[in-house]
Every structure is written in structure tokens, then in C-alpha cells.
Amino acid sequence: MTVQELINELQQVKNKNLRIRIHGDGPDGWTYYNEVEYTDECVVYEDDGDLGGKYRKRFVISGGMF
Predict the structure, then answer these.
(1) DSSP class of 3
(2) Cα separation of 18 and 21, whole Å?
(3) Helix (DSSP H) and strand (DSSP E) numbers for the chain
(4) Is the pLDDT of residue 47 over 80?
């Protein structure tokens, strides 16, 4: 998903006063909800499977540790 695609999705939300929660599933089968801890442009490693991996700049929305 690109930043523009995220913006387009967010523009469809009618109630702009809703608080954002990050939803994640843990290996224990539980579902966790965290607040957004930060957003930033970061260099992250992305594994391309058989092609190996590369470091790429990405926009990151972090929910911290689940």
C-alpha cells in the first residue's frame, strides 16, 4: 500500500474524530490492540523470497510491541 492509497482509504472514514488503534494477532492466538506510537520514514529490510532481500525506505506506522 502506498501513502496515497492510505490517504484515500482514510478519506472514506466519515467520523474523522475516531481514535486509531493498531490491530495485531499474536502467535498465542490472542488479538491485541495498541495505540499508534509513532509514524516515520524508515529504512526497512524486505525479504523478496527467492530474489533475496533489500533495504528500502518506507513510511512506517508503529504500534509498538504486542
Answers:
(1) H
(2) 9
(3) 1, 4
(4) yes
